[in-house]
Amino acid sequence: MRNLTIINNTKNVPSLAPTRIYIEDHAMPDTLINKIPCRKLGVVKNGESATFRIAEKPAIVFAVTNKGLRNYYSECYEINGEYGDVILSGKRKFNPFKSSPFVFEGGGSEEVNENRKKAFKKLMMGVLIGISALVMFSTIFSAYVVNTSINKSSNSAIEWKEDAPAKEFTIEEMSILLTENFEPVKHKNYKVVYKSEKAEVFVSEESYSQFPKFKDISLEEYLKLVMENNKLEDLKINNEDGLCYFVAETKNSNSGEADVHYLFAFKTEESVWLLQFAVGKVDHDSLKDDIFTWAKSIKFE
Asked: What is the pLDDT of residues 85-126, one digit of tens each?
């Protein structure tokens, strides 16, 4: 046996849950990650480290930040079977749409990149999963590239009506005036998701009590952080009419059509809120003005 030490260098990333560590184990598995039998070793909290006892044989180590999305957004690293302890370090990257994934450090080194390639290749040998198969929402924009809920596949039971009356929705201290085309849906990665046939609104909140540094940065700085961690630095942050936001266009992997995302940030005395409005580009022109109307209606009590 030998020791596997995982060092979590995460600082100031809005994620409450610790990173779960799994290892490939065909003898005593307790779960599957992309059809690879795995055993949970334990968790490692942000800013801490944890050491686990493992066998002296080749295996894939998984770092999972969202158990429900472990088949799609798990960082993996293949360790060899040579004798000796193993030390891996990494950190979580702030990403409100991908559960702030844990990434092993040393991404620029040839050894780390090669290990990632080998581990990923082994994963794909076990199961062939197209990215368009993802039907869950997560909390980087790549998740919304494959968002199958847009363009009338949201499973909303409400038929879209152009003249639908306004309807106010409230979640804790936030309220928003949408229409009766929408319905609230619970989701573990968001405070709430407001779904409809043509548009969806994803609501998340980060408390200053958990992430105090967010209290001292501006909305523009917060959105720049979001863009940086999603490799969207070339997009423009707009600050007008009392709204701070940016717009991103992605390709829907199911329909092949484009989707448009408006991401608005708001600050209160206690937290920063992130609301994303997602709509298929085919409906964008007809709903653009509505999106701004809905965003301007947002209030915090």
From this structure: 889 998 887 655 555 678 887 644 454 455 445 444 444 333
Dmax (CA) for the chain in angstroms is 69
Look at the chain and report how many structural domains it folds into: 2
How far apart are the C-alpha atoms of 260 and 281, rounded to whole Å? 6
pLDDT on residue 122: 44
State residue 152 phi and psi, 5-degree precision. Answer: 65, 30
What is the 8-class DSSP label of residue 152?
T
- Please indicate, yes or no, whether residues 148 and 123 belong to a single structural domain of this protein: no
Residue 167 CA to residue 182 CA, distance in Å, equals 8
Read off the pTM.
Answer: 0.53
Q: Which helix (H) or strand (E) holds 49?
A: strand 49-54
- Whether residues 167 and 250 share a domain: the answer is yes
Domain that holds residue 82: 2-129
179 and 247 in a single domain? The answer is: yes
Pair (262, 231) in one structural domain: yes
Let me know: does 17 contact 46? Beta carbons within 8 Å: no
Beta strands 2-8 and 86-92, pairing class: parallel
Distance CA 75, CA 260 (A): 28
Give the Å distances, CA to CA, from 166 to 144, 179, 195: 27, 4, 15
